């Protein structure tokens, strides 16, 4: 089942539980606006090339729309729609005043020079500048679907946000709050790089506290060791958690006594791979999901847990740091096995929460120190978990439906309060 079908299915199930009016349910599914623009740029050799840029703005009942811009050769409209919709529910679960959006340009970034990427970004911004805005739609960098997201990626995408900020400001005056994920020098927030991974750890702690367990007593396996996975691994290691297995696109490594994560990070930086790490044994990347561990954290691609491999999972808890890593079929199998799944819509919302903090700082013109960013993030993640648990108890449902009913209910209430039937 693809991301759109799964998201729509979860939404409909939540709508049924909440007993939503069928007309309102239909209205909430349809995007507010879909934008498609042609972006023609001169290449460095003087030839002209055209790309298609797009933006799906899903819902603005609770505030400006928010979501990433992805540069990827195969931009699937269905997936973009699903991710825009998911952002609507995700921001509502986190209780930040946004709706959902998503967008991108159908191109292969590695085939473009830096100056070509800059021209493409600026043309795209020129085409959509009057449809985005500080109080309308606030873009951000998008992790994309690449499992091997590195620090290089992070800074390249900071640069893209800087170009959008500059181009937008030519039309509307200096507007640092128009995008998030900017370089610190242009109003980016401290703590943003680690935010999604740190949020995953706060979410994990909230879940484990609920079950009377603690990070320091448990073992963890992490699939995907890019930005999110590496930060989650680092922070779990710092808090005494034993990370026993890690995998990414280059391979996998395991050590039942626990991997030394700082050494592994240095090894990956030096060699570009997880293979041949002296502090553990090499393993096939695909074997990670069946590793003996207490907590499994998929941080890479969607759909990695499916009906073929869900039976092999040995973890007691799954923390969905990736978007849509668990198929609905796998959900049912895991539920029967008694595995507790903390859903992506909550578990990986640390990134958008700190993006919100960045936007707030820009609007106020007053920047926070990193300690305040992390403290506020912990507060938001902990509070959201308690709200999800309350919905689970009210509606007698699992954590995924608890999160979806929480998010959908907030958006539905905002929509009705604003006069939906008028």
In short:
The chain has helices at residues 3-18, 22-29, 77-94, 114-128, 151-172, 195-210, 227-238, 261-271, 328-337, 344-347, 350-364, 370-395, 399-417; strands at 33-42, 48-57, 65-72, 99-106, 137-141, 219-223, 242-248, 251-254, 281-283, 295-298, 317-319, 340-342. The protein is of the alpha/beta class.
Describe the overall structure:
- There is one protein chain.
- The protein has 13 helices and twelve strands.
- It has helices at 3-18, 22-29, 77-94, 114-128, 151-172, 195-210, 227-238, 261-271, 328-337, 344-347, 350-364, 370-395, 399-417; strands at 33-42, 48-57, 65-72, 99-106, 137-141, 219-223, 242-248, 251-254, 281-283, 295-298, 317-319, 340-342.
- The strands form two sheets. It has a seven-stranded mixed beta sheet, sandwiched between helices. It has a five-stranded mixed beta sheet with strand order 1-2-4-3-5.
- Helix 11 packs across helix 12 and helix 12 (370-395) crosses helix 13.
- The radius of gyration is 21 Å and the shape is globular.
- The two termini are 36 Å apart.
């Amino acid at each position: 089942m693809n991301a759109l079908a799964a998201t729509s299915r979860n939404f409909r199930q939540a709508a049924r539980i909440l007993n939503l009016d069928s007309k309102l349910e239909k209205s909430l599914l349809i995007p507010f606006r879909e934008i498609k623009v042609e972006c023609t740029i001169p290449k460095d050799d003087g030839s002209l090339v055209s790309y298609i840029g797009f933006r799906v703005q899903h819902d603005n009942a609770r505030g400006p729309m928010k979501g990433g811009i992805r540069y990827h050769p195969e931009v699937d409209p269905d997936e973009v729609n699903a991710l825009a919709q998911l952002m609507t529910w995700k921001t509502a679960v986190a209780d930040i005043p946004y709706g959902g959006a998503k967008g991108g340009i159908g191109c292969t970034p590695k085939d473009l020079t830096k100056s070509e990427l800059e021209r493409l970004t600026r043309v795209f911004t020129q085409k959509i500048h009057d449809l985005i805005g500080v109080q309308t739609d606030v873009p951000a960098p998008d992790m994309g679907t690449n499992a091997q997201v590195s620090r290089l990626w992070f800074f390249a995408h900071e640069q893209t946000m800087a170009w959008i900020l500059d181009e937008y400001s030519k039309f509307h005056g200096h507007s640092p709050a128009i995008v998030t994920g900017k370089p610190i020098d242009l109003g980016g927030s401290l703590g943003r790089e680690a935010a999604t991974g740190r949020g995953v750890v706060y979410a994990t702690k909230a879940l484990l506290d609920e079950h009377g367990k603690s990070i320091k007593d448990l073992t963890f396996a992490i699939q995907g060791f890019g930005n999110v996975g590496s930060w989650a691994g680092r922070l779990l290691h710092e808090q005494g958690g034993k990370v026993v297995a890690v995998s990414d696109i280059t391979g996998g490594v395991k050590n039942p006594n626990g991997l030394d994560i700082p050494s592994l990070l240095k090894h990956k930086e030096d060699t570009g791979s997880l293979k041949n790490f002296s502090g553990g044994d090499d393993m096939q990347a695909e074997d990670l999901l069946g590793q003996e561990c207490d907590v499994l954290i998929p941080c890479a691609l969607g759909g990695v847990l499916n009906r073929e491999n869900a039976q092999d999972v040995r973890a007691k808890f799954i923390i969905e740091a990736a978007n849509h890593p668990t198929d609905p079929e796998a959900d049912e199998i895991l539920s029967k096995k008694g595995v507790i799944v903390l859903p992506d819509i909550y578990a990986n919302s640390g990134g958008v929460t700190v993006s919100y903090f960045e936007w707030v700082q820009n609007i106020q013109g007053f920047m926070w120190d990193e300690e305040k960013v992390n403290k506020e993030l912990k507060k938001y993640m902990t509070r959201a978990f308690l709200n999800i648990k309350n919905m689970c108890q009210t509606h007698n449902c699992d954590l995924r439906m608890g999160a979806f009913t929480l998010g959908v209910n907030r958006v539905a209430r905002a929509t009705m309060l604003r006069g939906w039937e008028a």
